Amino acid sequence: MLEGTLSVYAFIVIFPLAVIGGLIFLIRNFIRSTEYCDADARFDGKTIVVTGGSSGLGRTLSVELAKRGARVIVACRTKARRDSTAYFLRSKTGSFNIRTMFMDLTSLDSVYDFCQELVDTEDRIDAIVNNAAILSPQDKTSDDLDIMLGVNYIGHFLLTNLLCDKLLKHGTSSSPSRIINVVCGSLRSGHISRIDEMEGKTEGSYNMRNVYRSSKLALHLLTKELAHKYVEEGVVSYSADPGYVNTGLYKHLEGPFGKFNQTCAKALYRTTEEGIQTILYCLSSKDVLKQSGSLFKDCRVCDIRNSEWTEKSVKELWDRASELILSKGIKMELGAADDEEEADKADSEVADSEQ
Ligand SMILES: NC(=O)c1ccc[n+]([C@@H]2O[C@H](COP(=O)([O-])OP(=O)(O)OC[C@H]3O[C@@H](n4cnc5c(N)ncnc54)[C@H](OP(=O)(O)O)[C@@H]3O)[C@@H](O)[C@H]2O)c1
């Protein structure tokens, strides 16, 4: 009798636990099943800029690129992060072909200065990985932009535009320079109209996840417009979705949903090694060369089409972003001030010699 009761209890407890365990196992396998990029792909002689290389995916990517022979330029949010990242990356890879630099995407001035220094001091740039991002509560950048749109989109828009000449210089149609924008699958529910929030036109309640998705949608549309602009000019661009990855990205999510998300991240999400595979693929594969402007996930094209994203709306978004940056007093070209100074200096030297 006692044995019978025990076995019923055991069944009531063990069976649901086994089902839940099985489900978790299946979900985990589904989320984590990933394609691996060619392990032999090398980047010798290539200089690759990675934003947000101080943690998460960007840091793992920087390690991998350095191990595979690239010169890696890692942009870090603070000077302290720059120094600690330099120490970490060098001790992890043994490579001294790594340069860490300060660049805070919440300041357009900082992005401009970073690009100017980079272009003045590096011989070549072969690829940019626009990886840094935040998922955070409502706030403003120092340029009075919505913080997520500022960091995730506008800062990278400026960076990419300022570095494009350098990319164009060394890219050829058989070996083009590459721009990789790291996005997320949920961009498909982003809205171009939300981009108005970057201009301070927020109305109603602020939904952090919606703004994040919209910032990633804007970044994906940047990929498309870059592909359109530089077709056959030796620069290709891709969006890469790393899938769900266990990183610090979710640290600002609050409440029960936030806690649930962080627990899921630890238990179910991909490791950063798994998450970087599609980025590595977009950086190295020859198969992608004809697919500039596409979105990749798991080393495969996974493009999203939306009737809202017409050629016109994508171009308009580009123009609005450029106008916005100019309205903040930031130039969209490098070296103009220096050129003027050089010209003034040359003029005064000529005038002096004529006196
Ligand atoms: N994790 C996921 O599940 C997931 C899914 C889809 C897409 N993604 C995308 O993957 C990319 C990498 O994210 P992650 O998951 O690796 O997150 P993460 O660990 O939070 O890394 C974000 C990186 O961005 C940097 N960053 C933040 N604000 C910055 C600023 N103002 N200026 C310069 N750098 C700044 C961070 O610097 P600090 O280290 O100094 O904070 C950090 O290095 C993001 O674009 C994200 O949208 C992630």
From TrEMBL:
It comes from the Eukaryota. The keyword Transmembrane applies. The chain crosses the membrane at residues 6-27. The keyword rRNA-binding does not apply. Keywords: Membrane, Oxidoreductase, Transmembrane, Transmembrane helix. It holds the Pfam family adh_short. Residues 336-355 have a biased composition (Acidic residues). One of its GO terms (molecular function) is oxidoreductase activity. Residues 335-355 are annotated as: Disordered. This is Retinol dehydrogenase 14. It comes from Nephila pilipes.
